[in-house]
Design brief:
single chain; alpha/beta; TIM Barrel; 8-stranded parallel beta sheet; 8 helices; 8 strands; 37% helix; binds zinc ion
Length: 255
């Protein structure tokens, strides 16, 4: 009898997946290639929603509470509720600085990021950071904390210079569908220098669908397209990248 080896598809931790912001039928999504998910909040309400759905999915899911830089102006109004959620959450975020959109003033954004960094220090929880056109200020704010708790730079887009500087801080770099875009030439070069024990992958569902799905809403199963591109750039097998990224996320969560 001929042996038929059942080949297991490599699995992925989607470290940034806003399922609570979608109208997907969450029970009928395809999670076959998902090891587990991390569901970040963008404000108090969506953090609470992340908590609620995290226990109701067919795959394990962790959740994070935080206030997105776009809404940093609402920090004082949401602070009490955020504090309660942060105390309960598995991680803190997403937060950060977005100097591309500037939906809140830069001062409000820095104040908001500092609030979250202080809570991460207090609760010893990992933090998820959004950094868009704000490398210098993000670096200056997190450099005093980077030894205290794990820092995830979500949907990393930095070129060589900033990637090198952030590597020295010992942070984690989460790569999104942007890595598959033709335009991401500098990013493709800079990921080559990231140590494998600092690599993570994410979808940022429902945003940033990988190249071949561009224009569609993103979903967890599409994560493999980003992983394929990353494996190619790191000259690794998909299976090895799967193992190392799962292990990296387990380390962050002390799992
Ligand atoms: Zn996000």
């Amino acid at each position: 009898m001929k042996e038929t080896a059942i080949k297991q598809e490599p699995k992925w931790v989607d470290t940034h997946c806003h399922l609570q912001l979608t109208d997907y039928d969450l029970l009928s999504l395809n999670y076959e290639n998902i090891e587990y998910l991390i569901l970040p909040g963008v404000d108090a309400e969506s953090s609470k929603k992340a908590k609620d759905i995290s226990s109701k999915l067919p795959v394990p899911a962790y959740w994070a509470a935080g206030l997105h830089p776009h809404d940093a102006k609402n920090l004082s109004a949401q602070k009490d509720e955020l504090l309660k959620l942060i105390a309960e959450a598995d991680l803190i975020g997403e937060t950060g600085l977005d100097y591309y959109r500037d939906h809140s003033s830069r001062e409000e954004q820095r104040e908001n990021l500092t609030f979250h960094l202080e809570r991460a220090k207090e609760f010893r929880k990992p933090i998820i950071i959004h950094c868009r056109d704000s490398f210098s200020d993000t670096y200056d704010l997190i450099k005093n904390y980077a030894d205290d708790f794990p820092v995830i730079l979500h949907s990393w887009t930095g070129g060589n210079k900033w990637t090198k500087k952030f590597i020295e801080l010992g942070v984690y770099f989460s790569l999104s569908g942007i890595l598959t875009y033709e335009t991401a030439k500098d990013l493709k070069l800079s990921v080559k220098q990231i140590p494998t024990n600092r690599l993570l992958v994410e979808t940022d569902t429902p945003y940033l669908a990988p190249g071949q799905y561009k224009g569609q809403n993103n979903k967890p199963e599409f994560i493999v397209e980003t992983a394929k591109k990353l494996a190619e750039l790191k000259e690794m097998t998909l299976q090895d990248l799967s193992s190392i990224t799962i292990s990296n996320t387990n380390t962050i969560l002390s799992r």
